[in-house]
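User: Before I run my own analysis I want an independent prediction to cross-check against. Here's the chain; please return only the structure tokens and, at the end, one sentence I can use as a sanity check.
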Amino acid sequence: MERFKTRNIWFVVLIGAVIFVVFTNEIGFSKFLVLIGSASKPLILIAVFFNLLNLVSYTITWRFLVTENISFYKFFKFYMAGTFISNITPAFGTGGEPVKAMLLGKETGTSRAECFAGVVSQRMLNMFPFLTIGGFGIWLLFSSGIKLETWQVAALMFAILLAFSAFGLIMYFYIRKDRVSSFVHSSIRFFAPFIGFVKKGFDEKTYSDAVDESINSFHGGLRNIRNNKYGLGKAVVFSYFGWIFDILAIYAIFLSLGENRIAISVLIITYTIAMIAGWLPLFLPGGLGVVDGTMAVLFIYGGVPLEMAVVATLLYRLASYWFNTILGAFCLGASLKAE
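Assistant: Structure tokens:
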């Protein structure tokens, strides 16, 4: 496991180095240094602060969705540990979710399935503000009279369709426990002969019973969350704050570079499509490379000068992805030491 994590980290560092070389090569390294040197350092720090507020907001959202009574510090530590794993694991940015559930379960003595219900609920809930803010950006874009090329409209429609499809699928499995159970049991029956070759003494019935118990525990946790309407309402509010703080972090980066003419619609749409694009490549951790490239290209097509778009994207990803990954690594180490 440790070897796997180390390999993943080096893979992430290598991709990051390639992205940096490609981006700086587009504008020239000397031009890059000039732009970085002239950037407002206080505004860059404000962008990092907005990113921290984004993380705090999502931690509070998660805390409202579970009944376990532990300190905010531990919730934040577990959230960031999961963020680290998500950022180095190619799994739609969800590789850290089981880690959050595991750490919370060990801390509270609650079943991992119930803890995982809280983690999944937070992901589901975060989709709603994401889609509504993205929809607001689309409305601003078309109402401002900005002309889009055919491929841009197609990319926008594809991103919206993908986001709604993912949200709809999650909601379907959330509502239909029987469908989840049926799907899992069918998978176990299909893979049972292959598992038998690898794992001696594999008992399909025992394994199926254990899965049923986990599914029941998981949906029991979901029911508890659904019945906590007061907590759900607060969670939704902080989820909106989380998305807004993330967009404000990008805006602060542009201001630090002296670029204050970027349209808010372009900012929101670029952010929305770039985040959705990051879900697509299964082999790239945290959407690394895809998010960066998509964001820079869309900023350029949105009217931002090439050098500004490139440097702003690099600085934003430094303040969010790389900062969060490093902070998450420390939090994971602290969580494992505390065990």
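Sanity check: The two ends are 17 Å apart (CA to CA).
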